Amino acid sequence: MKKFFSSVYHWIDERVELRDLVEFLGKKYVPVHEHSVWYYFGGVSLFLFIIQVLTGILLLLYYKSGEELAFESIQFIMSKVEFGWLIRSIHSWAANLFILAAIIHMFSVYFTKAYRKPREITWLTGMMMLFLGMGFGFSGYLLPWNELAFFATKVGTDIAGVVPLIGKPIMILLRGGEDVTGATLSRMFGFHIAVFPGLFVVFLGIHLLLVQRQGMSEPIEFENSQDTPQQRMPFFPNFLLRDLLLWLLVLNVLAILAVLFPWELGKKADPFASAPSGIKPEWYFLFMFQTLKYIPAQILFIDGEVLGIVLFGLAGIFWTLVPFWDRKSSEGIRNRFVNYVGLFAVFYVILFTILGWYA
Amino acid sequence: MRSRLRRSLPFLFVMTALVQELALSQDQCLVCHDAIGDKNAALFKRDVHFLKGLTCADCHGGNAAKEEMEEGMNSKAGFIGVVKGDSISATCARCHSNAAVMVRRYKSTLPLDQMEALKSSVHGELSISGKEQIAQCTSCHGAHGIVPKTNRLSSVHPLNLPATCSNCHSKAAYMRGYNPGLPIDQLEKYRTSVHGMRNAGGDTKVAECASCHGSHDILPAKDVRSRVYATNIPGTCASCHADPEHMKGYNIPSDQFEKYSKSVHGKALLEKRDVGAPSCNDCHGNHGAVPPGVQSISQVCGTCHALNASLFSSSPHKKAFDKRKLPECETCHGNHEIYAAKDELVGVTGDAVCAWCHSEKKLKRGYEVAKAMRQQIDSLLGSENRAMALINEAEQKGMEVSEAKFKLRAVRQARLESRTMVHSFNEGQFHEIIDKGLGISSHASVEAAQAIDEFYFRRWGMGISTFIISVLAASLYLTIRRIERRQAEESTKSRQGS
Fold first, then answer.
1. Which residues of chain B have a CB within 8 Å of the CB of A256?
2. Based on C-alpha coordinates, what's the Rg of chain B?
3. Is A159 exposed, middle or buried (0-12, 13-18, 19+ CB in 10 A)?
4. B474: nearest CA in chain A?
5. Spatial separation of the C-alpha atoms in residues A299 and A219, rounded to whole Å
6. Which of B462, B472, B487 lies nearest to residue A248, judging by beta carbons?
7. What confidence tens digit (pLDDT) does each residue in A192-203 have?
8. B460 to chain A, minimum CA–CA distance in Å?
9. pLDDT in tens, B231-264
10. Arithmetic mean of pLDDT, B153-182
11. Chain B residues with CB inside 8 Å of A245's CB?
12. CA A45 remoteness from chain centre
């Protein structure tokens, strides 16, 4: 068997010079320190994205877009297609776990200042992927065309429409008209399976390339430590096998969630029915949704909702541009302000998500 | 008391004549118009307004105290002549809507909102001329000979009112202008009804037009505020028919409303506000209201329950009921107090109505059929309940069973169909429906049971996959440890070597 693998390796090596890559991987090391655990969340996010792609392709074999077909096709997938229920449940759970893993990854990068020079582009592509991930969630939410998704999309696109000047055109673009209709479903489907994946793969390619090219970022303290010898572990096979071990565990968690808590389909959307009580967006939008509920209708001469959305937009831009305003970290100096901003953001998001969840 | 009244009668007569003479002497208009033989003047002399001291000028303007026509009927003195259009009702309302005049001056107990009620009524809508409302006060009350409605001569006296209303409502050409769909034979029908016949015979207690439709505040029957709107009809009828005092002497019970309210029809109409449910007039008629006779009961019920009536008519029971002069539907279901048709009505035990006529000794064939039908109904119900329990269990386990649930609706439909088919009293036809229901129910049960099996299969699958993944993870963990131990040994060796 060993001989067989060896001959296969040589066959490929002769053609694509695999040896260089293996040597590169062999020389690649991952720093070992007290924050090393956070390195794994990037890999977990990648693994969950791969699961999303695979289960998404399988769902695509049976899913039919359209007001009259979408709900019924999901119903068919869940009741008639062999293991269709499992694929759909895994797709839905993995989507949420992906966002969770990506958020944890983003905050870990933020707090360890891994975004600092020379990794600004890695951070930016990562942030783009997080926004796209949320876009995946928002567009995919409507695809089953159920009551909850219908009204959540209505509320979500309504909020987008409040933004001054560009809000209304964005709302029309997202909805494919004035209201949430079959045209919106077609658009969301298009975004979900073509536009977003296309963009995502580009950002993912750049992100992974940069991670391989620049290696793992080391915390400032680790980089500056003179007293203790710096520990490193080989990327191949040590880190990769550890990654694989975690992926296996995540896969198991996914399977358990999918079986014990199968993703419900609910009632088919009825545009003429009144909105059911307790309409909420997906959990990762809850903190913004809940904040908008608390903002008074009018603050001075500005509409409260508009102000909230503009502030969130500015905060998002501010957060995304952290490598450019945090100069100290790039120079290897501790920047406590960044930590305070990050801690405030974590506390705020958790608090308002909890408030929104139980509202 | 009576003798004292008799003694004071001449005095009252003299006083009235004196008041009349006094009023006449103050109303120079009436003096002249009476002298020239004006009919209106003659009528006005018995008018309640004249007796209360009003003069012609109070409505027509001018100065009634002036003897000279040029002075009395001078526009400078406010003379307006014949009052026309909406000014007629406005002239009446000047006093009739004025509490100071009606209550303080004339001590009247008449309501003061008649004008408002008329304006918001169907008669207050704009007439086809577009210049005035459809009806004025004088349209019903007349102009110069108005007397209290208790007076037999009044056009709105209960015995005269049907004819007064029909002055317009029976005229096809006139009514076409307002509501071409409205029948014009109400008076004709009314005269054939118990109410109409008694009214014609001089009974002032029975219902006439105003009893049901109201007087000044009449609204279209489609208006939810109308006394004759579907959901208000039982209450309107009950205002007389549920009053034992009022109904005394008519030899009919006064508990129909109470019974109806408890019935399946009453609950649908009064509680669920289902205007499709029958009200009193749907069975008894409205203007031609009479109790339906034995022969016509199935026709009355059959207007809604068409299939039941048709099945019954072609069943062996039809002949048997006719022979015994039994009212068809009413015999088993009752009349005002009709309860929701339950499966228990069929059979030979408990609440089953079949047992009223059929027993093992008497009319045995019917007894056997009723018994068999009940067994089949029970078996379908049992099968439906079992399927429902399985579907609920599968649903509670989070399984997708919408198709099985949909089938359950078909089972329920079959059970409802069987209730209709009972009226054929044909065991074969009945069995067919039950069989259909049992078949669907069995399919639904199988699907639900499969879903439950699938649930356990998933649990087992999850257990096995967790085991396999755990083994793989443990192996991977051990491999990592082995590799790292080897790396550590190699590193130690290389450090020792160097």
1. 462, 466
2. 40
3. buried
4. A245
5. 42
6. B472
7. 999 999 999 999
8. 10
9. 999 999 999 999 999 999 898 899 999 999 999 9
10. 92
11. 473, 476-477, 480
12. 8
